[in-house]
Amino acid sequence: MIVVLQPNADKMEVAKLVALIESKNLKIQPIEGQDLTILGLVGDTSILDAKILEANDVVRRVLHVEEPYKKANRLFHPNNSEIKIGDQVIGGEKLAIIAGPCSVESREQITEVAKDVKASGANFLRGGAFKPRTSPYAFQGLGYDGLELLKEARKETGLPVVTELMSTNDLEKFIEDVDVIQIGARNMQNFDLLKELGRIKKPILLKRGLSATIEELLMSAEYIMAGGNENVILCERGIRTFENYTRNTLDLSAIPAIKKLSHLPIIIDPSHATGKWWMVESLAKAAVVAGADGLIIEVHNDPLNALCDGQQSLKPEAFDELMSDIKKLAPIVNRTV
Amino acid sequence: MIVVLQPNADKMEVAKLVALIESKNLKIQPIEGQDLTILGLVGDTSILDAKILEANDVVRRVLHVEEPYKKANRLFHPNNSEIKIGDQVIGGEKLAIIAGPCSVESREQITEVAKDVKASGANFLRGGAFKPRTSPYAFQGLGYDGLELLKEARKETGLPVVTELMSTNDLEKFIEDVDVIQIGARNMQNFDLLKELGRIKKPILLKRGLSATIEELLMSAEYIMAGGNENVILCERGIRTFENYTRNTLDLSAIPAIKKLSHLPIIIDPSHATGKWWMVESLAKAAVVAGADGLIIEVHNDPLNALCDGQQSLKPEAFDELMSDIKKLAPIVNRTV
Amino acid sequence: MIVVLQPNADKMEVAKLVALIESKNLKIQPIEGQDLTILGLVGDTSILDAKILEANDVVRRVLHVEEPYKKANRLFHPNNSEIKIGDQVIGGEKLAIIAGPCSVESREQITEVAKDVKASGANFLRGGAFKPRTSPYAFQGLGYDGLELLKEARKETGLPVVTELMSTNDLEKFIEDVDVIQIGARNMQNFDLLKELGRIKKPILLKRGLSATIEELLMSAEYIMAGGNENVILCERGIRTFENYTRNTLDLSAIPAIKKLSHLPIIIDPSHATGKWWMVESLAKAAVVAGADGLIIEVHNDPLNALCDGQQSLKPEAFDELMSDIKKLAPIVNRTV
Amino acid sequence: MIVVLQPNADKMEVAKLVALIESKNLKIQPIEGQDLTILGLVGDTSILDAKILEANDVVRRVLHVEEPYKKANRLFHPNNSEIKIGDQVIGGEKLAIIAGPCSVESREQITEVAKDVKASGANFLRGGAFKPRTSPYAFQGLGYDGLELLKEARKETGLPVVTELMSTNDLEKFIEDVDVIQIGARNMQNFDLLKELGRIKKPILLKRGLSATIEELLMSAEYIMAGGNENVILCERGIRTFENYTRNTLDLSAIPAIKKLSHLPIIIDPSHATGKWWMVESLAKAAVVAGADGLIIEVHNDPLNALCDGQQSLKPEAFDELMSDIKKLAPIVNRTV
User: Fold this and answer.
1) Which pLDDT score, from 0 to 100, does residue D310 have?
2) In-domain check, residue B281
3) Chains contacting A with at least 3 CB pairs below 8 Å?
4) From its phi and psi, is residue A199 left (phi > 0), alpha (psi between -120 and 50) or beta?
5) Distance CA C185, CA C207 (A)
6) Which of B242, B253, B312 to mutate to test the interface with D (most CBs of D within 10 A)?
7) DAHP synthetase I/KDSA domain: from which residue to which, for each copy (chains A, B, C, D) (predicted)?
8) Are C157 and C285 found together in one domain?
9) CA atoms within 13 A on the CB side of D271
10) Which of A24, A44, A63 corresponds to the end of one domain?
11) Best mutation site among C25, C26, C35, C244 for testing chain B: the one with the most B CBs within 10 Å?
12) Is B249 helix (H, G, I), strand (E, B) or coil?
């Protein structure tokens, strides 16, 4: 960490600041520049709240040399993490293809879609039982009944189940029933929830918040990992920008960025990012060749009558065509489906 | 709601769409434009998921005529809402001045600050017992012990207490101990939490999410109100933009906007918005003359040693000077302190 | 265009508004909704300044049914535009691969890079002679001397030259010397410049502004096309968002969006978007499979000593490897290199 | 400047980097941290292109200790700059109140509005002769005829004239006819134009770009000042964010930020920021108490029939009421009108 001092800083105040920093077991190396003086802080600065230093009148600015995350940082964990779920692995050579409807609506719907996506090459089933909806008047999901239907679809197809947890109250049930616990974008910084997830071993699919930086996404992963659960899969699903033709702006540069900064797997959700089914194919293929470890895609057998997000759901036939292209593209970037 | 049709839409498909819409008890009035045809939907469209219509191949776009919120909408509730908290009112002529430290740290700290801010003119005490922190390694608040200290400070000063709730698990305790329950920006769309808040009567201070539009803020208020709790106070605390000199960008235009769209009170948090104590004075005064119903300001008696956010905390003397200016400005915009 | 009226609009004022609209040769079809009344405007509304209607007290909101651009709109021009440059075509099956250094620095540099990128499969040479730089103290380009060097490199390799025009003063020279005139992101709404470009026939590579919506990009294309020059190639080069790990956020969803909305070709610049050379490969490949009509990529033979943007330049060997992958990916999405 | 090295950087490569830096007359002070090593660069780093260092494989990141602007920096110019325009001063105790229509439309219109705003307390007249419009089909201003009408209005009222320059071709005419040359948001990084403005002495009102950081605004001022023209007045007019209820998001925190970072005056344009006339009053008052050096406000005597931006124009009576409030607020923040 680098502390930039004000040009005419009071010496007594600087001495106090130095004493404060040294009391945290950090060493200081000053550099006198042409116009400004800086203090280089050497030691474990992760325990220091950098912002508090800026409360000091003699401090002009604080600069960070190291990333604030440790367990999620590739610097200390050079090899890719591979997350095991049953006989599937996320983060290895094989792509994770997670497909299914936005929300579970009925036994027929979820089972039929599960069979269809499996036939096309998906290796995980998604489907919401608890739905975060902007409007209190919108369909909120089937809840526990939805979980039961997901279990039936899993039994029928063998596909492990990925579904969203919204409340710590349902955690025990999810540990029992679900294969991967999804944390939605709006809960990425629900720190109480993250702490609870650190206490379990179940793999977590952590979606990037709408306005979360890549660093903040990794800090939320760090919350879970610091608690003891290292089975974290990151998911980019579009960020909020000024552009409103698409629901969000899919940030595919997050793929190489996260591969550089972290060892955790990163998968892409083109359905929520764009909010338009006819954009999904194009961006799903782009994600794969950009180096994503997998995709999470909404597929519905009757989008026109879906209870939620039909506008961004592929029909099974369209998904099948997409998978056929992905099977051709994957080997070129050293991946398998 | 307006449905814009594709220029060469299949007539059979349009007929199906019309039937679907009419099955929701809505009437359709078509208008044939120069290049495009639109369908005007008449009736209660709030129950219709507009996005689903866009799943339809014959639909080019859907436009919204009405706001999706009802209870929070000034259209149906022309007078300002006034929220009563003990003998204080938020949303009337008198400004709500909520002041105190970022986090409760000790009996001496919170009581001393409470006395100081009261003496300067604050009529509410703020202080975090449960702290949402980006880093799992940062101070997370004193928890229940913090609530006890807040109660002592209230006893000593008579100031009602505003503090943040992070988990439904603590709700009962907060109903008992706290005067206004604050919901932080990161939980603005924690819908499970919002639903619980709708079941109680305690006033809620709902902070705008970092990337929430004004409409989404009002939709989150609608969640609480739809559940039965109409005591909602909105709070603008800065939104996330590309500018990173400030922690966030304070959106003061939200004040006239919300006054136009809704009857709910709106208060401003310049401390979190800017993240720099020396900016607070300027923006606090601006908020008052722009028409805010109140302010929430961080005040700490020893910012250099604060356990959290010292860089954005005013010292009691600086707060006192600010209040002295606000007392002069308020009457010019027909407010009292 | 749809005009939403205020619920309690004064009838005399509405009558005046109706008269104003009808005086523009537009017909009005009103629809009385449950809470609000709307006026549907039928006719050529492109001549009407919609915003002005909002000056009217009785108007609640104005909604747009049609896009404000005509000549750039696929609605009126269903087939893809193909822009011819010498014996090359942009917008057809063959990808446009535009490669070269950020700025022209010397005869050796530009010629060597030109030969290298041609050998790897590029069909256009890029290189800045006039450089827009944030700092007045930074290298500003070789100017006319740079144009001469570009011409020599073209003579040597046969590659058509793409370079940025910053001022109308240099237009004549560019028409003579250059094959494609690039308009940089910062000049996308330099309307004086756009008007001049409408008067010529030379193909224009129009880069999307840092904070321009897709609609605004198309409106800037419309400026040029309305003037008479239909040879416009669009370029997505990253937009400004809150994420600052990358220089900008590359918006690949702009590819399917623009393909839907417009008939103009769209190419992608991953170098400026990310600002990091090690991200370029991943996103260049993604752009191709997402459906881009081409790429514009910075290649420098000595990035460590480049006078500009070395951090985002590929070395010729890295570019060659990238092209080798692109040659394999292109046929899968029905493209050739 | 601080260069953070990669943890396992090749020593030969580091030695080359060190040699490169030292060849620029900079000294290096290394600090070995716990996990990473940094190089502190001492000397005039403004001539060094920091980004180029990131082209180097051994470099992890570059951090900036100093701001990249010198002439606009308060560090080297502690006192506020005061810009003289005739017998008016911008940047002193007296507020600059610049008012007038969006565009000059006729002799009657501009003269009548000029008289009205002067009577209410404005000390400058604004009015566009050349208008930057998103649509090529919209009214583009009266051009030179507009300048003539502005001169007549100035003659009649004595108010100095502020109007926008869009092209270097009109510069000579503007120097002769105009008192303050306004550079619009879309031209803030039209570097060719900025360079020309550096060669003259006429005061420049430089508007912040829609997606420009405060630092970039100051860098554009630096362009003009580096050329020799130190008469720069900055203007915040709203930035582009995800919120689209308002045209842009007015960033009032730019006022204290710019006051800290720079000695240049800063004025606020609430009309363009919000795009809604009924928001202007609230935010204009807020700007004054936040410490702005002035306001630029659109006033039109017939907004319903304005040729441009009527929706954001105040009527003269509303402007008069606003000024009456501002006259009361100004003294409380030590300003005069």
Assistant:
1) 87
2) yes
3) B, C, D
4) alpha
5) 5
6) B253
7) 88-327
8) yes
9) 24
10) A63
11) C35
12) strand
Name chain D's partners: 3 or more CB pairs within 8 A: A, B, C
Residue B80: partners with Cβ closer than 8 Å, 6 or more residues away: B91, B92, B263, B265
User: In order along chain B (337 residues), what is the average pLDDT of each group of 10 residues?
Assistant: 92 92 92 92 83 89 92 96 96 98 97 98 97 91 97 98 96 97 97 96 98 97 97 98 96 98 98 95 98 98 89 96 98 97
Q: Say yes or no: D238 and D272 in one domain.
A: yes
Task: Tell me if chain C has a CB within 8 Å of the CB of A274.
Answer: yes
Tell me how many domains chain B contains. 2
Global ipTM: 0.95
D291 touches chain B (CB under 8 A): yes
Contact C311 D53 (CB under 8 A): yes
Please check whether residue A240 lies inside any domain of the structure: yes
Contact state of A51 with B311 under an 8 Å Cβ cutoff:
yes
Write out residues in chain A with pLDDT < 50, as ranges.
none
CA dihedral B212, B218, B219, B221 (to 10 degrees): 110
C178 and C316 assigned to the same domain? yes
Determine contact: B278 vs chain A, CB below 8 A.
no
Residue D207 Cα, gap to closest chain A Cα (Å): 20
**Is D35's CB within 8 Å of A75's CB?**
yes
**Domain assignment present for D225:** yes
Helix axes A254-261, A214-227, angle to 10 degrees: 40
What is the separation of C-alpha C165 from the centre of its chain, rounded to a whole number of angstroms?
14
Mean pLDDT of each 10-residue bin along chain C, 337 residues long: 92 92 92 92 83 89 92 96 96 98 97 98 97 91 97 98 96 97 97 96 98 97 97 98 96 98 98 95 98 98 89 96 98 97
Digit-coded pLDDT (tens) for D280-327? 999 999 999 999 999 999 999 999 888 888 899 999 999 999 999 999
Both D55 and D151 in a single domain? no
Helix/strand/coil for B73: strand
Assigned token pair, A305: 């009558």
Interface test with chain B among A278, A311, A315, by most B beta carbons within 10 Å: A311
Contact list, A256 vs chain C (CB under 8 Å): 274, 278-279, 282-283
Q: Residue D68: inside a domain, yes or no?
A: no
- SS3 per-residue string spanning B163-217: EECCCHHHHHHHHHHCCEEEECHHHCCCHHHHHHHHCCCCCEEEECCCCCCHHHH
Q: Do C290 and A274 touch (CB under 8 A)?
A: no
Question: Are both D155 and D273 inside the same structural domain?
Answer: yes
Given this model, what pLDDT does residue B51 score? 80
CB contact under 8 A, D136 and C167: no
Tell me the CA distances in angstroms from C64 to A142, B56, C41, C50, one per residue in order: 37, 20, 10, 9
Which residues form the domain of B28?
A: 2-63
In a mutagenesis test of the B interface, which of D64, D246, D288, D289 is the best target, namely the one with the most B β-carbons within 10 Å? Answer: D289
**Whether residues C96 and C42 fall in one domain:** no
Report CB contact under 8 Å: D36, A63.
no
Set of chain C residues whose Cβ sits within 8 Å of the Cβ of D222:
135-136
